[in-house]
Structure formats: C-alpha cells, structure tokens
Amino acid sequence: MVEKGQISIGTEERVLMCGNEALAEAAILAGCDAYFGYPITPQNEIPAYMSRRMPEEGRVFVQSESELAAINMVFGASATGKRAMTSSSSPGISLMQEGMSFLAGAELPAVVVNVMRGGPGLGNIAPSQSDYFQATRGGGHGDYRTIVFGPSSVQEMADCISLAFELADKYLMTAMILADGFLGQMMEPVVLKKRPSVELPPKDWALTGAKDREQNIVRSLWLGEGVLEDLNFKLDDKYKQIQKNEVLCEEYEVDDAEIVVVAYGVAARIVSGAVTRAREEGIKVGWIRPITLWPFPTEQISKAADEFRLFLTVEMSTGQMVEDVKLAVAGKSPVVFYGRPGGGVPTVEEILDKIRQLTLGAKT
Amino acid sequence: MKTVFKRTPTLKDCPTHYCPGCGHGIAHRLIAEVIDELGIRGSTIGIAPVGCAVLEYDYIDVDMIEVAHGRAPAVATGMKRTNPDKIIFSYQGDGDLASIGAGEILHAGHRGEQITVIFINNAVFGMTGGQMAPTTMADQITATTPKGRNVAEEGYPLCVSELLAVLPGVSYIERCALSTTPNIRKAKKALKHAFEQQRNKAPGLSLVELLSTCPTYWRMSPADATKWIDNEMTKVFPLGRLKG
Ligand SMILES: Cc1ncc(C[n+]2csc(CCOP(=O)(O)OP(=O)(O)O)c2C)c(N)n1
Ligand code: SF4
Ligand SMILES: [Mg+2]
C-alpha cells in the first residue's frame, strides 16, 4: 500500500501495487472528491484503500448501505460539481443500473468501476468478462451509453481511471472501468502520474445554492411534447462525437496477419502470449486489443477486415464482444469465437491450439 | 392599505399542478417561507421526490434536483458529505420514503446524516392513481385495496417516524398536520426548527412528517379531507414531537 506522500505527482517513480489499489490511488490523484461503495469481492481492496486514504486527503469516504445507495450518493455529490466515484462487482453493478440511467438522463459526470466476477446470479468470485453487454449497451433503462474502458494491466487500471474522470467531466456522463478479478488482485509495477490538465467545460449547472443567481435544476423528467425526444437526439449527438474522438485500441502485427485475434482485458494478455508463440511457429497472426469497449474500435477492425483474414475473438464469456467484432467485420471475413465463461480463464496453450486449428482450417 | 399576507419570494408566482385541496401546495409554501425567514436560499439545495411533488422545483425557487423514487436520502448524503456548509433537504411522499425508499431513509438516519427530511404522509400513492401506501389506514379503500386495507394480509399502517425516532443518529422528529390553521402554524414551526437544527450544525438527521390531504384519492371534498386527517389519521399517526 502506498503511504501518504510516497507518490510524488508527475514523477516516473515505479511502485508495486495490485490493480485495485493502483486504481484507487490514481483516482485520488485525478481529483476524486468522494468515494461511495458497498463491499463485494473481488474489489474489496478499493473501499478498504479509500477508507484510509480519502480522509487523509480531507476527502469523502462513505460505506453505503447498498449499491443502490452508493450510486445515488455519487449522483448527489456529482450534482454539486464534485468528482465522485463508486466501485463494485457484477451483482452490485446490476443494482446500480437505475442510478446510472438517471446519471445519463440528468447528464451528470460519474466514474463507476466494475471488477467483474462470474455470473449470472451470485455466480462465483472468479475473474470473468460476462458484463460486457450490460456495460456497453447502457445497462439501465432508456436510450443511453456509458464510456467503457477495458484495461489489461495494473498500469492501465491507473491510466484509465484518470482518463475516465476527465471524459466524464468533458461529456457529462458516466465513464466505467470494466476490469476483472484478475486485474484487481494482480501485483505489477506502476507509475502513478497526474494527467496533463485540459480545459473542461465549466460546471455552471452545479447545485451550489442559488446565491445571487437563478435557480439551477438537475432533472431527467421531461413531460413536454417532443422535449425528451430532443434530449435523446442531443445525447445521441454527444455519443457520436465520442465514437469519433475517443476510441482507444492497440494493434500488434496485423499488417501481414492471416489471423487476427481480438480480445480485451486480461484475456488480451493471454492472447498476446499465444500470438507471440504462434509467430515463433511461423504462423502469421496478430492481435487487436480494444481499450475502450464503448466507443468500440469498429473502424480499426473494419479496416483490418478489408483484406481477407480470419478473426478469432477470445473472451472470458460465452461470447459478447464478438457481436461487436462481427458488426465491424460486416461479413467481409469469417469471425470465430473461443470463450471460457463462469470464471474459467483460457490458457496460452488453449489459444495457441485454437490458432493452429484455424491455420489448418485456412489451408484445407 | 396594510399588507397582511404576501407570497414569500422563494415561492414562485405560478399556479401548481396539484388537485384542489391538495396538501402539497401548503407544504411548499411553508418550506419557502421558512427558507426566506432563515435567509438560507443561497445555501440551500432541495431534493424532489418521485410522486405528485416531482415538479417541486417549478414552485420552490432554490437549487433543486430530481432523483429516483425513494433514493433522496442517499442523494442527500452524497451532497451533504461533500458540501457540509450547504443546507440539504429532501421532500418525500409516503410511497417514496416509507415503501421503496425505506432502506435509504433508515440508513441515512442510522448514519446520522445532517440533513432535513420533509415527509408527506397522505396515506396513498397519489401520483400513480391512489394505490395503497405503507401508511394507508386499516380498511381504507384505495385503487389496490378495493375492499379496504385488510391488515391481516396487507399489514397495519406503517409509522415510520416512530421507527426512526429510536435511532441515535436521528436528532429531531415531529409529526404535524396540514389540516386546520393552528395545525399548519405548528407545522411551520416544526419545519423551521428542523432547518435551524441543520443550519446550526446540530448533529443528526431532522425529519418533519406532515399528514397531508389527497382529496382526489380519498374520494372526499377538500373540507372533509382535512377533517379526516384530524379525526381519523391522527388516531394512528398521533401529532407531536417524537424526538428532540
Ligand atoms: C422505480 C419506480 N417504481 C415505481 C414508480 C411509479 N411511481 C411513481 S410515484 C409513485 C408513488 C408515489 O407515492 P408517494 O410517494 O406517496 O407520493 P404522492 O404522489 O402520494 O405525493 C410510484 C409508485 C417509479 N416512478 N419508479
Ligand atoms: S393526487 Fe392527491 S397528492 Fe396528488 S396532487 Fe392530487 S390531491 Fe395532491
Ligand atoms: Mg403519498
């Protein structure tokens, strides 16, 4: 655990931390004013860390009575112009969907961390990627989106949360970190740096008391004819801007590849190992790793599919992101899937076998 | 000519959407008067419920937020913890506070959040068409208790204020009635005390329960509705200070 004052802002000093704690410290560095949350495995390091560090920094930590309450505490703090976050794991994130829908409707910034575990139901506490649909399709009721990051290292856990706070404020919406139990618990060296400051729109809508000004109202109910439709179109414009400007993804040896493996999060690390081994065997294979899951790197994948290639999507689920890959590939190339749901984690060997099978398939 | 009564500035000069004889309008006026008398408009943030009073911000001229059904005490917690110098109040119906939001109010009280809660008990879900609320009286006919509330199956009216009064984190609770003029005066005094508690940073949550008319779904004239509060509701929900 990082002690107070140990991290000097902006230095390149490396510290060894688990993903959950790196994310928590990075949130503090990003100016998070308040953390609200309810314990659930595998993300308990986050509230434990925050309960110690937030008061040290003179900031707010509240252990809420439920995830319903936690997300609504975020809603309240955010409406007053503060940077607020919560974290949970799959069942708790389901409970937060009501609040996330209200955040979208009221156009309030918020940061939500989902350290995914196996589902459905109580599932198990093993790492999983089974909440991709819920995260990238809005999740709660209504026509909305959230920005979703799928980090794949402890460093990215930290980097993504700083960017999440920035984009949440920039676009006035929820930004989510979609991690998994593996990334949360894993220890790696990390450099915690403050993002260079950028100009963000003023929070002149914030509820601060209507002193010497007109009343501010934060709401999501619009009963007048056509008013909500206009709001939905306005949100849609914003989402289109984000799709244009905020996609992050990484590619590896795609140019000459006959097979492209698409994976995110911890699955992408395993894929990377398998692809390196396959290259050693002379197989022409590369990978694409979406870092933002929404907005999805549709264009990058579509471009890769302009030449005939086999696409293999690897996920720790029965296949969710693969639907976005298929939409991007748009029938130009075949898309196959390999997944391990319910807490199963694919091995390098399993993926390598799959790649080998595909080369055979391609030849026959 | 001497002005004996005028609209207080924090109450907006516009007609409300409430039914004739509805208690919500009276409650709004009292809150606005108290805010002006205490001079706290510039530091107050209000939370509107889901219920007939959802558009409260159209009538009370302070910074306001509209929140999910029942979640106001959690929202208030997020606001107050990050803004300890602001005055935060929630305004909640009996469906909002005593039914779907029972968990949130219990735990806000339990944590001793320094917020003010105005609890409008009109014994029904007004907004959705007069269904049974936890506070519905025994044998009371509602949209979902067509033969009257059967306490053997649907439970007795829930006295939330009494439940909350036992919590150490709750410092002040009073139940008043928006019925006769003397009762309305008492209600205003109670509201003022609740806001003063928060302004003076007295620890703990302050709550004022207001027995309030819903002539529409009680199927009564406004005059009979006020009588029903005094003659029937107060038997189950006795008036007075429960704590503090
Ligand atoms: C999650 C959710 N469930 C149900 C509703 C529908 N609903 C709106 S208001 C209401 C009850 C309001 O009753 P109360 O709080 O007593 O307020 P009143 O209208 O009587 O003042 C209900 C059930 C909703 N808006 N949200
Ligand atoms: S339905 Fe009842 S509570 Fe709602 S506005 Fe009409 S009288 Fe008031
Ligand atoms: Mg009611």
Task: Tag the structure with descriptive keywords.
heterodimer; A: about 375 residues; alpha/beta; Rossmann fold; 2 domains; seven-stranded mixed sheet; five-stranded mixed sheet; 13 helices; disordered N terminus; B: about 240 residues; two-stranded antiparallel sheet; 9 helices; binds thiamine diphosphate; binds iron/sulfur cluster; binds magnesium ion
What's the topology here?
The complex is a heterodimer of chains A (364) and B (244).
Chain A lengths: L13 E5 H11 L4 E4 L7 H12 L3 E4 L3 H13 L4 E5 L1 H6 L1 H10 L3 E7 L15 H5 L10 E3 L4 H18 L2 E7 H5 L1 E5 L25 E2 L8 H19 L3 E4 L6 E4 L2 H16 L4 E6 L1 E3 L3 H7 L5 E6 L5 H9 L5 E5 L8 H16 L1
Parallel strand pairs in A: 2-3, 2-4, 4-5, 5-7, 6-7, 11-12, 11-14, 14-15
Antiparallel strand pairs in A: 1-8, 6-13, 10-12
Helix pairs in contact in A: 1-2, 1-7, 3-5, 10-13, 11-12
Chain B lengths: L22 H16 L5 E5 L14 E4 L5 H11 L4 E7 H7 L1 H10 L4 E6 L2 E2 L5 E2 L18 H4 L5 H6 L4 E8 L3 H19 L5 E7 L3 H4 L3 H15 L3 E4 L1
Parallel strand pairs in B: 1-2, 1-3, 3-4, 4-8, 7-8
Antiparallel strand pairs in B: 5-6, 7-9
The complex binds thiamine diphosphate, iron/sulfur cluster and magnesium ion (MG).
Q: Would you mind describing this structure in some detail?
A:
The complex is a heterodimer of chains A (364) and B (244). Chain A has helices spanning 19-29, 45-56, 67-79, 90-95, 97-106, 132-136, 154-171, 181-185, 227-245, 265-280, 298-304, 321-329, 348-363, and strands at 14-18, 34-37, 60-63, 84-88, 110-116, 147-149, 174-180, 187-191, 217-218, 249-252, 259-262, 285-290, 292-294, 310-315, 335-339. Chain A is of the alpha/beta class. Chain A has two domains: 14-208 and 217-245, 3-Layer(aba) Sandwich (Rossmann fold); 249-363, Rossmann fold. Chain A has a seven-stranded mixed beta sheet, with helices on both faces. Chain A has a five-stranded mixed beta sheet with strand order 10-12-11-14-15, sandwiched between helices. The model of chain A is unreliable at 1-10 (pLDDT under 50). With 244 residues, chain B is α/β, with parallel strands linked by helices. Helices cover 38% and strands 18% of the residues of chain B. Chain B has nine helices and nine strands. Chain B has helices at 23-38, 72-82, 94-100, 102-111, 151-154, 160-165, 181-199, 215-218, 222-236, and strands spanning 44-48, 63-66, 87-93, 116-121, 124-125, 131-132, 170-177, 205-211, 240-243. In chain B, the strands form two sheets. A seven-stranded mixed beta sheet of chain B has the order 2-1-3-4-8-7-9, with helices on both faces. Chain B has a two-stranded antiparallel sheet with strand order 5-6. In chain B, strand 5 and strand 6 (131-132) form a beta hairpin. The relative contact order of chain B is 0.15. The model of chain B has no long low-confidence stretch (mean pLDDT 98). At the A-B interface, helix 3, helix 5 and strand 9 of A face strand 1, strand 2, helix 2 and helix 4 of B. The structure holds thiamine diphosphate, iron/sulfur cluster and magnesium ion. Residues 93-95, 122, 124-126, 133 of chain B line the site of magnesium ion.
